[in-house]
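Q: Hand in one record:
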Amino acid sequence: MSGTKEEDRKGSSEWREFFWNPRTHELLGRTATSWGLILLFYVIFYLFLAGMFALTMYIMLLTLDDFKPTWQDRLATPGMMIRPKGEMLEITYSVSDIETWGGFVQNLDTFLSLYNDSHQAQTNDNCPPDQYFIQEDSGEVRNNPKRSCQFNRTMLEDCSGRTDQFYGYKDGEPCVLIKMNRVINMLPGKDGQSPYVTCAAKGEDSDKIGPLAYFPPNGTFNLMYYPYYGKKSQVNYTQPLVAVKFLNATRNADINVECKINSNTLSDGSERDKFAGRVSFKLRINT
């Protein structure tokens, strides 16, 4: 027993001496000078790393342009989206229940507020149609801010919310707005031919969709809204829209709809990318 106690005291004494040795003035086996040199090394080392990181970021930022991306890695055909937004790209409602479609109407009202004719007249130009609105820079001198062409809400006619404040939802003839994603410097048509939208039902639903009406006429994205120069260059840019009105869709049935862009410069979307140049959604109009 005495041997064990003596060994414990010896071990405890060795541990205390390792932590602080009063004879050599060493802390954890190192003198103050040794600790100072190690700390100095790591301070210099991490300052060097921080400096390298800052220099790298500075050089990278010098290559960036505030008005357009230096490198553009984009799809051959831009994606598309619809309004109003339903859950999981579904527009389902009951004609007889305003609570099921009132939110869609409010969503469209809010979205189209920037398209009011009075607002467009104040901020954008009345451009000649069917030709690109090109605004090139002069060498290093930027032509900014660039102007934008008017897209007036009334161009959507029956789907503008002006002639029918309920956008057809009250009567079971709903309007769906379609927009093409913005792509800087994209030219979506040639020879004066604007891209246009067509919608159809998928597969067995083709007999349920009924006739469709497009606004503006023929469902076109006029060439005058292109090219798009970016958010900072073209601060008042108003994205063109196409409205599709379902005039006599079958009630109480799911209708899988696909709308796609047709253009003589944009390639067709592939099966590998379901959203290139198209958008699919489900429509169900209950009584």
Notes: The radius of gyration is 33 Å. The longest helix spans residues 32-62. The chain has a mean pLDDT of 89. The longest strand covers residues 254-262.
